[in-house]
Amino acid sequence: EAQVTQNPRYLITVTGKKLTVTCSQNxxxxxxxxxxxxxxxxxRQIYYSMNVEVTDKGDVPEGYKxxxxxxxxxxxxxxxxxxxxxxxYFCASSANREVRTEAFFGQGTRLTVx
Amino acid sequence: QKEVExxxxxxxxxxxxxxxxxxxYSNSAFQYFMWYRQYSRKGPELLMxxxxxxxxxxxxxxxxVDKSSKYISLFxxxxxxxxxxxxxxxxxxxxxxxxxxxxxxxxxxxxxx
Lengths: 114, 113
Known about the structure:
The structure holds 2 protein chains of 2 kinds. By secondary structure, chain A is mostly beta strands. Helices cover 0% and strands 50% of the residues of chain A. The mean pLDDT of chain B is 91. Chain B is globular and about 40 Å long. Chain B is 0% helix and 53% strand. In chain B, a hairpin with a 6-residue loop joins strand 4 (32-38) and strand 5 (45-51). At the A-B interface, strand 5 and strand 10 of A face strand 4, strand 5 and strand 9 of B.
């Protein structure tokens, strides 16, 4: 089954404690992205990757890091989480080379930073 | 002016009604238009994807793009309670093989039996 898998689904952490949210896709897609979704603000892109070792900032990259060492994995790293990073996070992937339609989204990770 | 505007709703309709969901946008460079459905506590799911102006139909769903008015619509015929979800529009402009997506904030649809 084609899917994007995120882990964990729910996470409560404390300010400043480094954490990683994993994302893996089984469709051999080149493009992968991270979004956060907040009430009243909608979906905003954090980082994206066009292929292995190729990453770039989205609209709200501050406080986040990513890496793309393998095609299937695209982890999101919060080096020093703060309460304003409490949000619902989605990983997405797509294979369309000409236009970026986010074809598949993960189930989401609800992060709470206290 | 926000790039993509979408009424948050909720839009409540009885089962069987025709539903019209809409987005307006300001960036004339947008050429690709998408509609996503998001159930509560789930990730968005791509429903429809259209390029430039015109209509596209898929089962009970029809996507319509009017670039001259900067207005896109999603019509749902014979709406079902299972259509109750938040519908997100998204747009992108082709740019050297990669374009970021700009999402609307979503419209919540409630279809009552």
